[in-house]
């Protein structure tokens, strides 16, 4: 293999990494700007700032849009859309969104009925992911559960944990 072929091969392998580095910094800045707007009470502007990042699959932006729909901040409160945005971020390992999913399952808002097995599952996953408040929510929901429900939840937790947090 000649030198130009080697350079081309290395460059081809590095392109995704370089693209990530080039595009992730501006994305982080957009999300920080949106957070600042939310703190200032400018929710409509924050939503517009977050939409491109969320639609591109950024979990932080997805979680923040979930919060906005859950609380009716800059958008009409919509539990189905809130849950959907939380779920997108949750499946990418976002602990805050996982707690949001747990809460929706716990209280049953926007659902036919509460589901304590899934609430506990998502709270545990959120705690594994590092959400400091998830352990408190987990302790509260487990008080309402039967032993059988807890066992069912632990099966789900293992199913999710191995691919959401493979190194934990």
Q: Mind telling me the C-alpha Rg?
A: 19 Å
Mean pLDDT: 88
Could you say which structural class the secondary elements and strand pairing correspond to?
mainly alpha
Tell me the number of helical segments per DSSP (H or I, 4 or more residues long). 8
Q: Specify the overall morphology.
A: globular
Let me know the number of strands. 0
Q: Helical content, roughly?
A: over 70%
Unreliable spans are: 17-24
Distance between the termini: 41 Å
Largest sheet: none
What is the ordering of alpha helices and beta strands? HHHHHHHH
**Count of separate structural domains:** 2
* % residues in beta strands: under 5%
Provide a descriptive summary of the structure in words:
The chain has 168 residues and is mainly alpha-helical. The chain has 2 domains: 91 residues, no CATH class; 76 residues, no CATH class. The longest helix is centred in the N-terminal third of the chain and has 37 residues.
Q: How would you summarize what this structure contains?
A:
This protein has 168 residues and is an all-alpha fold.
Ordered list of secondary-structure elements with their pairings:
Blueprint lengths: L2 H37 L3 H13 L3 H13 L7 H12 L4 H13 L8 H14 L4 H9 L4 H18 L4
Helix pairs in contact: 1-2, 2-3, 3-4, 4-5, 5-6, 6-7, 6-8
Question: Could you list some keywords that capture this structure?
Answer:
168 residues; mainly alpha; 2 domains; globular
